[in-house]
Every structure is written in C-alpha cells, then in structure tokens.
Amino acid sequence: MAFNLSELLESRRGENFELHARYLNPQLTKVVTTIGFDRFYERGEGCYLYDDAGRKYLDLLSGFGVFALGRAHPVVKAALRDALDADLANMVQLDCALLTGLLAEQLVKRSPAGIERVVFTNSGAEAVEAAIKFARAATGRKRLLYWSHAYHGLTMGALALNGSREFRGGFGPVMPETCEVAFGDVEALAKELRRGDVAALIVEPIQGKGVYELDEARWREVQAAVHGAGALLICDEVQTGLGRTGRFFAFEHFALTPDIITVSKALSGGYVPVGAMLASDTIVRSVYSSMSRAMVHSTTFKGNQLAMVAGLATLSVFDDEAVVEHAAAMGERWRERLGELAARREYLEQVRGRGQMIGLAFGPPTSRAGRLRWRTLERARPALFSQTLVVPLFQRYRILTQVAADNLNVIKLLPPLIAGETEVDLFVDALDELLAGAEKSSAWVRDFGVTMARGALRPRRGAGRARVGG
Ligand SMILES: Cc1ncc(COP(=O)(O)O)c(C=O)c1O
C-alpha cells in the first residue's frame, strides 16, 4: 500500500508516548508525563499549538527559538512546496548550487563589514564545531576560552565549551585545551590571554542559560583584550541571532565586531535543520587553503536545497513583515508590563533580556509566611519555585514556558518573533494571577504536588526527577 500520511496519523493516533517510552529516550517520556505536559499535539499555527481535543496552547518556547515566524508561515510553506514541485537537483555535491550561494549572499549582506563567507551546517552545535576548527586553523593556536554558564551545544567540541557541569557528567574526557572564564571577568580573561596560546573566546552576546548580559563598556573591554592578544572573538548567535533580541544579531546591541558568527535555529523558519558559520575571507581560506583542502571541513547535508529555500523565504519574510523591528517593539511591551508586575508582586525580582528573549528571575518574598514557603520549597529542591509556576502556567492557562537552567529560579520566554500584544498580555495576566495566589497561601504548591503525583502515577510512564526545560 502506498504511504499515506493522514492514514498513518489516524491509525496510530495516541500511541506517541508509548512509542517514545519503548524506542526513544525513556527518561524524557517520564519527565513530560510527570509534569503533566503529555499532550498529543495535532498541529501548530502562528504562536499556538492545538491538541487532539482541540485545545489551544500559547507556545512561548517556539521549539527553543526556531519558530521566529510562528508555526506554519504561509510564505515558507509555499516556498517549500514550490521547491519540492521543482524537483531541484539537490546535493549533487560536486557542484555549486545557486540557492546555496543566494542564502550565503543574504547572510553576508546582513552581517558587519569583514564577514564575507559562509560555511553551512545542519545545526547550531555543528556551526560551533566549525567555529572551533576555523579559529584554530586561522590562528595556529589551540586554546578556546568560554564563559561560565555558557551553552554552545552538546557535540563533543561544543560540550568542552559548556559552562554547566551537569551536561558533561559521564562523557569525559572532553576536548582538551579549553578554559572557562567567569562571565565578564576581564582580568581573568586577560590572564588567560597572556599565555599567547588562545585561538578564540566564544560568547553568547546574551547568555541563554539564565538570560544574562554584560553592559556595552564591559563588552568593549572584553573585545579589546581578545583582539589585543591576537585571538578571535566568536559570537554564538544560534539563539540570539536573526532578530530574537530586537536586532538582527544581538552583538549589535553592544557594538561588537566578531571575527566569527554562528547561526542556526530560526534560519529556516523551523522547517529544515540548518546552521551556518560566518567569517572573513582570510579565516575561511585558512582552512580551504588549496584545492586539495577543498573538502577538509564538510558535511553531506550542507547547503541542502530545502534548507536553503526555507532560509531564503524566511529572510524575505523578515524584510516584508519587519520582523526584527516588531521583536524590538514587543521587547518594550514585555519590559513595560513585566516591570510593572515586578514592582507590585512578591517573588518576581528581575526582568531580563531584550526583544523576544525574556528571563524572569524569582527570589524570596518579604513577608514572613512567604519566606517560610520559599525556604521549604528551595530545601526540597533548589530552584523549585520557578517550576511550581511553569507547571500551572501550562495546566491552568495552557501556556508553554521553560525554566532557564538547572538550579536557577529563572523562567525563560522565547516566543515566536511575531508574537504581539495579545500574547504578552495573556502571559503577564496569567503570571499575575499565579503570583497573587502564591502571595496569599501555599495552595499553588499543593496543586503543583498533585500534578506531579498524578503524572508520576500514570501507567507505563513512571515517575522521574523532572526538570522542566533546559
Ligand atoms: C547559543 C547556542 N549555541 C549552540 C546551540 C546548539 O544548537 P543545536 O541544538 O542546534 O545543536 C544552542 C542551542 O540551544 C544555543 O543556544
């Protein structure tokens, strides 16, 4: 029988958790079930997901930031349909495809002077792997520096640049010749640079884990120190790039001039895995230095035509719909509404981030009873408070959010860049209600406990030490 997608989906409907428990990552199945996030989503459109019962969920995760244009953007969909109908000669390999050149041209056009070439990859981590190799080749040096709390992906090279220990456990030894520097500590950075063996410092212009940033003056000192030592500055824009923070690249907020840029996530509108490393002609030629080295860094799916079409269509929507400008305007709206909430509600201590990348930091309240509730929770598990909000945000208000990192009381919002005032208001009103409840009594903690207990008791799915998000 010929393959029929709708028949397949209909005939196996509802088996998703069982299949994952049996064939994929069993612990993820437990986590999703335990926190009560187990839904069978049938479709997504714009900023919303819809489950099999027709319920609508506001998606403030956007697939960890890939759905900049929301889900099912008609322009990207149509472009992909056209590409399939055109039977493009995809990945001929001993070829130079037009669409790959066109997307590279678009990326270079949107980059600062000095960024002249593109190396395509399949993911963010792979773009970081490319950056590591090209930085070493271009400088002839080995060492890579990274900030504490950094996140650059989980492949073996990227893992060696990860500032959170929990991701490394059990995988060692990681790539040698890397060194962590305390976030923004210029003196410590200068000390490492003085050894004269540093190829590059890799940074997220705004850190994803916790949504932390440095001020422009500090960034300038960091950049001057790196360049003064003959090292390269790699700006990892996998999450912050392509308008996420209200500028095309987040480093523009701090007037940085990186030597290498990595992008991925939003580039293909969420449809086809894609990533890219952007750098100067000199850096790229340090690897591709002769005809015999034309393939020394490569990957089979690089520049695949569906990814290129999706990328070109996505960037054309960015222009036509002024997506970056909209993200900047919505950043103001988030700041205004959440700032007002932080001023009047307990627990919400700080609102961080820019554009459509928001971090909400929570801390103990001032009332005695509130502090007691906070301490009890934090004793049960560090940074549990933010999880007690993420669960009811989903259960009660059908809003999908995440905790920004292990052991941090920070909720991170990564809405689609097209999210508007309606979405901002939906979230802020829900959080307002939850915090009002938390100020008055422990009822919300009991609700959270009940959800977790119910999830843990569900047949086949089992209980786990659940963490929401990453
Ligand atoms: C800054 C940054 N770099 C790299 C990565 C890794 O990208 P991927 O998950 O596509 O490998 C991520 C993923 O979240 C990221 O946020």
Characterise this structure.
- By secondary structure, the protein is α/β, with parallel strands linked by helices.
- It has two domains: 199 residues, Aspartate Aminotransferase, domain 1 (Alpha-Beta Complex), CATH 3.90.1150; 247 residues, Type I PLP-dependent aspartate aminotransferase-like (Major domain) (Aspartate Aminotransferase, domain 2), CATH 3.40.640.
- It contains 17 helices and 15 strands.
- Helix 9 packs parallel to helix 10, helix 13 runs parallel beside helix 16 and helix 15 packs across helix 17.
- It is globular, with a radius of gyration of 23 Å.
- The C terminus is likely disordered.
- Pyridoxal-5'-phosphate binds next to helix 7.
The number of helical elements comes to: 17
CA-to-CA gap between the ends?
41 Å
Q: What profile does the largest beta sheet have?
A: 7 strands, mixed
Structural class: alpha/beta
In what range is the share of β-strand residues?
5-15%
| Relevant CATH superfamily of the largest domain | Type I PLP-dependent aspartate aminotransferase-like (Major domain)
SSE layout and pairing:
Layout (H helix, E strand, L loop, with lengths): L4 H7 L4 H8 L2 H9 L6 E5 L2 E4 L4 E4 L2 H4 L8 H12 L12 H12 L7 E5 L2 H16 L3 E5 L8 H4 L18 E4 L4 H8 L4 E6 L12 H13 L3 E5 L23 E4 L11 E5 L1 H7 L17 H16 L2 H22 L3 E7 L2 E6 L5 H13 L3 H12 L3 E2 L1 E2 L6 E4 L7 H20 L2 H15 L13
Parallel strand pairs: 3-13, 5-6, 5-7, 7-8, 8-9
Antiparallel strand pairs: 1-2, 2-3, 4-10, 9-10, 11-12, 12-15, 14-15
The structure holds pyridoxal-5'-phosphate.
